[in-house]
Amino acid sequence: MKRSPRLLTPTLLFLLLLSIQTTTTAQATLSSCNQIRTSNDFLALADRRAELLDEIQDTKTEISELEKQLPEAVSVSEFEDMKHQLTVLQEKPTRTALEEQTMQNLEGKIKLSKTDQYLNDAIAKKKQLLADDKDLLLCIQETIPQLTSPDQQFKGYMSGAFAALIAIVIGGFFLLASRDEVMRRAIFSGETGIQFLTLFSLVIAIILFGIINILEGKELAALLGGLSGYILGRTTQRPGAAPAPGQVTPLQKFVGDLKSINLTPPSANLSSTSTVQQLTAEPKDSNGTVIKDDDKFFVPSWESSDPNVATVDQSGLVSRVAAGEAQITATFANIKSNPCTVTCT
What does pTM read for this prediction? Predict the structure, then answer.
């Protein structure tokens, strides 16, 4: 049986309008969500949230009711057949009593019947509205805490500031240590520098936790008291660790006595059969006497003038690379040794 064009046209128009309305609704949802995120009106957002909760519940109920009607729905073809039969009966010039009764029955069925396509389209439309309402509700739920908790932004700023402070202090320590041998030893000898950095970071972290209300007053007092006791305990256990005002530390005395560095041997010859040579650096005072170094303060930095000819590691071991000549020197506390001339054949 051929379907009447007059019956297909309303169906196509309905689907077209549904598609347009779905697109428009999605755009409206996006626009409303942007407006919600920029809104500072807490009461309006709270009212809108309550409305959305009611709408979501009502939409769920409507979807459930429509789904219950699906088993009793007729197909589109059956619905069109009933309308065609009714049209044929209505076009007859005369009708029997049975035909009149049939026509009345068809009119009642057509009036009360719903096609499965109509119900499925209605359910899809309700589900789209439900999804849009849920998106708006999510936007509101993300926006309201920002209005009710304005200190969240402050907590973020404080966390960033304290993290930057710790990074600056730690970076400053290592920058000083990398530039000055004496400073490096003063900071890291006996692990005092590492202990200071650790305690500094802990104190900053505890203060930050107090500012952003992670820790309460009693907890802060307990932690800071424990740290203070630890620091005082370390100090009382080592009464002679810190020099008195004006007292010279062993490292300062060593650096003060150091006047020159003597490199031996003063020259070396390397070849393909003898590729390495161990050099020795000795710290000497103003009288040319080797300074006693029981504390192992003297750790010079070794350098080659031409690494393409000869290289040297930090123990003073020189290695041949290629033919040529290079100068090897050792430096400590800004004092450079006499050069050792290395000839590579």
Answer: 0.36
